[in-house]
Amino acid sequence: QVQLVESGGGLVQAGGSLRLSCAASGRTFSSFAMGWFRQAPGKEREFVATISWSGGSTYYADSVKGRFTVSRDNAKNTVYLQMNNLKPDDTAVYYCAVSRYFRSGTYDYWGQGTQVTVSS
């Protein structure tokens, strides 16, 4: 069992930045790949970014590539999503999730989400 708690969301103007955190507890955090997803009102949940267990590999959705950066600190059991040059279309609830394998597409545990609102 893995528990995930996201934080760092909020209201920001377009062009601004936020850093989301996802703190994990339970099973060995450093053994798992991590992913970030988001869901806007009336839309399906979509993939944002993922990072391998070591942090050595990352992968991004085209919509955030060059603006968002995913990283992790295994000593702190935490994964981060640095979001720069935010746009109103980035408004969504952001979720972190755990996967056994990098880019497997299967995520076993999810956090409760944190709201990000970008005003124009």
Core attributes:
single chain; 120 residues; mainly beta; seven-stranded mixed sheet; four-stranded antiparallel sheet; 11 strands; globular
Question: What would you say this structure looks like, in words?
Answer:
The protein is mainly β. It has no helices and eleven strands. The strands form two sheets. Strands 2, 4, 5, 6, 9, 10 and 11 form a seven-stranded mixed sheet that branches. A four-stranded antiparallel sheet has the order 1-3-8-7, with no helix packed on it. The chain starts with a strand and ends with a strand.
Please specify the SSE layout and strand pairing.
Blueprint: E1 2-7, E2 10-13, E3 18-26, E4 33-39, E5 46-51, E6 58-60, E7 68-73, E8 78-83, E9 92-99, E10 109-110, E11 114-119
Parallel strand pairs: 2-11
Antiparallel strand pairs: 1-3, 3-8, 4-5, 4-9, 5-6, 7-8, 9-10, 9-11
Distance between the termini: 40 Å
Shape assignment: globular
Low-confidence stretches: none
| Helix-strand sequence | EEEEEEEEEEE
Give the total of beta strands: 11
Counting H and I runs of at least 4 residues, what is the number of helices?
Answer: 0
Radius of gyration: 13 Å
Q: Summarize the amount of helix as a percent range.
A: under 10%
User: Averaged pLDDT, please?
Assistant: 95
Largest sheet: 7 strands, mixed
| Backbone structural class | mainly beta
What share of residues are in beta strands? over 45%
In brief, what are we looking at here?
The protein is an all-beta fold and 120 residues long. 0% of the residues lie in helices and 52% in strands. It is built from no helices and 11 strands.
